[in-house]
Amino acid sequence: MKINIGISAEDREKIVEGLSHLLADSYTLYLMTHNFHWNVTGPQFNTLHTMFMQQYTEQWNALDIIAERIRSLGFPAPGTYKQFMKLTSIEEVQDVPKAEEMIRLLVNAHETVARTARSIFNIVEQANDQPTADLLTQRLDVHEKTAWMLRSLLE
User: Fold this and answer.
1) Which domains does the chain possess?
2) pTM exceeds 0.70
C-alpha cells in the first residue's frame, strides 16, 4: 500500500539514509559501551561499571525507536553487523583498553553519534518531518550530555 503521510518518497528515502547511519552509529556505541561495562577494571571500577550499564541500557532502548522510525517512513531498517559496519562512522575497538582510554573512546563515540544526528536535520526540516526532528533532538540531548559527563571524568 502506498504511503501518503505528506513527505515525498524521495525525501523519505533521504531521511532513512541518514537514520540508517544514526542507527549504525548508535548500535556500534551500544556494543562498545556494553563491552566496556563487562571489561572495565581499576580504581573507578564500580562507578564506571554502573555508569556504563545505565548508558548501554538507554542506548539499547533508543535503537528500537530509531529503527521503528525508519519502518514508519516505509523502508527496512538495517539490522546486521555487516550493514552496520558499512554505515557506521565509529571504529571498532580492538583489545581491552584501560579505564581512562575507555572513557576517551566513549566521549569520541558519543560526539560522533551527535554529529551524525545533527547532519540529518537539514533534510528533516525541509521535508517538514517533525517526528524525526523530535527523535533527533532527543538523541542529541542524550549524547551531548553523556559526552559532557564522561569528559568531566578526565579532568
Assistant:
1) 9-153 (1.20.1260.10)
2) yes
